[in-house]
Amino acid sequence: MLGIGIDIGSTATKVAVLNEAGELVRTEVRPTGFSSVEAAEGVRTLLEEDGCLAQPHAVVATGYGRVAVPYADKVVTEITCHGKGAARLFGGDGVVVDIGGQDTKVIKLAGGKVMKFVMNDKCSAGTGRFLEIMADRLAMSQTDLARMAREGTPTPISNMCTVFAESEVISLVGKGEPRENIANGVIESVVARVATLVLQTPGSPYFLTGGLCENDYVVERLGAKLEASVTTCPEARYAGAIGAALCALELG
Prior knowledge:
Helices cover 41% and strands 23% of the residues. By secondary structure, it is α/β, with parallel strands linked by helices. It has a domain at 2-81 and 239-251: ATPase, nucleotide binding domain (Nucleotidyltransferase, domain 5, 2-Layer Sandwich). The protein has a five-stranded mixed beta sheet with strand order 3-2-1-4-5. Strands 8-7-6-9-10 form a five-stranded mixed beta sheet, sandwiched between helices. α3 (128-137) runs parallel beside α5, α4 (142-151) packs across α6 and α6 (179-198) packs across α7. The radius of gyration is 19 Å and the shape is globular.
């Protein structure tokens, strides 16, 4: 029996496959693209090629595009799946910070159960998408953005709106501000907004999930803002999909 979790986010689609013992045996991440339906069909093809669908299995879908997975046995909310996946990775007590492409979720766990959550989905200024846009504007990758930010000194990015913030960055470039300083300001802007959201649900320890979990500089700066350590791991990117896969095993 396999538990298959599919997390279709606004930016990336993640897949996690657990065996009957609950061991993680397969992960995959790919761009969602413009169509959640096409992303779901691409995952179906992947699972068929891997032989996962030829074995006894259950599929649970979650995320922004969860309703676009016609072969799912069940759909489950993002909050439930991210909480369950994070509890599996880090333990059942703490605060999960999931920085996604279009929103940021903060989930307080106790005994592996969701006790409270808050979300920022009104503006992408505190999300991974904001970093992507700013890195593109500065003609560099997000990896280079983080590297250069370490070398810079803070240049405040004051606008809350991504569109206006992008204009602010363009203005700074035009004035000759070093890219290192702008990169530093961009990351500090995101981290400050995320920390403000996190402190609405105070607690510890803190666990970072989502696409930025492998960005060491973001992890470091978020910990500094929260004045606490932030734990993460490469598998944390798949927290939502892992939680969905755990839900799938429960169906079996």
